[in-house]
């Protein structure tokens, strides 16, 4: 079996296509197909042909040694060459001879021409820049900024605080009984406001905005406060106490703060 047939059969048994072998070996597909047809002319020489055989055999999974021996038997063993010869190209490189240089006179003429052109360009550039700068300076106008006129801030006239009518005074009457005590309260017109007995241990509270007259049947058995002030009658008999909204107490004779009018109960 030839080298090409051996490599082609090994490739098919490995389940590889020519394209896959080309991707793994970096050898062109056309060269691989030619080698499988035992055509090594596209390899570029015996050295490259041996290298391609080794690379393809390694990918398809066959031993390259007997294939190399078969190739050498058909094409001859590799010649013994030195390291320098291995890197020498097979075709000599043709080096072009340098063209004749211009004469010294022509070089001097070219230098003079280039120097004159450069000086003229610099002069024209300087003149052009000066003209453009002058034009720019003459056309630049100062930027005037106009500050917006501040708008007058509206002034708000403070309104005087609303005056609240003073609350009408009232008398807070608190009666606490330590003994049973009969109590009667009537207004200035004689209308009955309260009448009854306050049992011992209880307390009653009245809020009156008008003057009232309070009759206490057992002054020693109670404690009376008006707006937090102690106004208990200092008597052991039935007492009549007049209480005004300001909290002051008077008796029928007008004594301040507390004067009781004693009377015996019928």
Question: Key terms for this structure?
Answer:
266 residues, alpha+beta, 434 Repressor (Amino-terminal Domain), Immunoglobulin-like, 5-stranded antiparallel sheet, 4-stranded antiparallel sheet, 7 helices, elongated, disordered C terminus
**Order of adjacent strands in the largest pleated sheet:** 3-2-5-8-9
CATH architecture of the domain at 171-250: Sandwich
Determine and state the CATH class of the domain at 171-250. Answer: Mainly Beta
Task: Tell me, rounded to a whole number, the average pLDDT.
Answer: 76
Strand fraction = 15-25%
What Rg is obtained from the alpha carbons, in whole angstroms?
68 Å
The number of helical segments is 7
CATH third-tier fold name of the domain at 171-250:
Immunoglobulin-like
Spans of at least 5 consecutive residues with low confidence: 89-95, 130-140, 252-266
Q: Shape, please?
A: elongated
- Cα end-to-end separation: 161 Å
Element order, helices and strands?
A: HHHHHHHEEEEEEEEE
Extended strand count: 9
The major pleated sheet works out as: 5 strands, antiparallel
Residue share in helix: 25-40%
Q: From the helix content, strand content and strand pairing, which structural class follows?
A: alpha+beta
Walkthrough of the structure:
By secondary structure, this protein is an alpha+beta fold. Among the domains are: 3-78, Orthogonal Bundle (434 Repressor (Amino-terminal Domain)); 171-250, Immunoglobulin-like (Sandwich), CATH 2.60.40. It has seven helices and nine strands; from the N terminus they run H-H-H-H-H-H-H-E-E-E-E-E-E-E-E-E. The protein has helices spanning 3-13, 18-25, 29-36, 46-60, 64-75, 83-86, 104-139; strands spanning 171-177, 181-187, 192-198, 203-208, 212-216, 222-226, 229-230, 239-243, 249-250. The strands form two sheets. Strands 3-2-5-8-9 form a five-stranded antiparallel β-sheet, with no helix packed on it. Strands 4-1-6-7 form a four-stranded antiparallel β-sheet, with no helix packed on it. Strand 8 (239-243) and strand 9 form a beta hairpin.
């Amino acid at each position: 079996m030839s080298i090409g047939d051996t490599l082609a059969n090994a490739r098919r048994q490995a389940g590889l296509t020519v394209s896959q072998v080309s991707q793994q070996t970096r050898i062109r597909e056309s060269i691989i197909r030619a080698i499988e047809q035992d055509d090594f002319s596209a390899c570029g020489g015996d050295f490259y042909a041996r290298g391609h055989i080794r690379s393809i055999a390694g990918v398809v999974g066959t031993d390259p040694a007997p294939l190399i021996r078969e190739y050498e038997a058909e094409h001859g063993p590799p010649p013994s060459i030195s390291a320098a010869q291995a890197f020498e190209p097979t075709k000599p490189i043709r080096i072009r001879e340098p063209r004749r240089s211009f004469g010294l006179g022509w070089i001097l003429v070219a230098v003079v021409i280039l120097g004159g052109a450069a000086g003229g360009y610099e002069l024209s550039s300087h003149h052009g820049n000066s003209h453009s700068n002058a034009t720019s300076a003459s056309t630049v106008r100062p930027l005037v900024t106009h500050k917006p006129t501040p708008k007058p801030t509206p002034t708000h006239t403070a309104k005087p605080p609303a005056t609240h009518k003073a609350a009408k005074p009232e008398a807070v009457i608190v009666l606490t009984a330590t003994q049973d005590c009969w109590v009667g309260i009537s207004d200035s017109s004689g209308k009955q406001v309260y009448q009854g007995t306050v049992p011992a241990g209880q307390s009653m509270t009245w809020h009156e905005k008008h003057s009232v007259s309070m009759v206490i049947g057992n002054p020693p058995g109670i404690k009376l406060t008006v707006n937090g002030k102690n106004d208990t009658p200092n008597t052991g008999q039935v007492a009549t106490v007049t209480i005004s909204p300001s909290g002051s107490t008077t008796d029928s004779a007008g004594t301040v703060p507390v004067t009781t009018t004693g009377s015996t109960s019928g």
